[in-house]
Automatic annotation (TrEMBL):
InterPro entries: Sigma-G_inhibitor_Gin
The protein's name in its UniProt record: Sigma factor G inhibitor Gin
Amino acid sequence: MESQETAHCIVCGEATDDGITVVNQFICTSCEQEMVKTDVQDKKYPFFIHRLKRLWMHINA
Ligand SMILES: [Zn+2]
């Protein structure tokens, strides 16, 4: 049995094993799903962009 460390989602801060890791940054499944279906026109979009900016900055650093 593998013991996995519970990751914290960078978007919502939830601790869960259910999600994806992008460049060492963890995004939970629900946030990933939200982002996939979030339209640019959506009010939530700026929120995701704001949270993800850190991630992109990390990648481009
Ligand atoms: Zn999340």
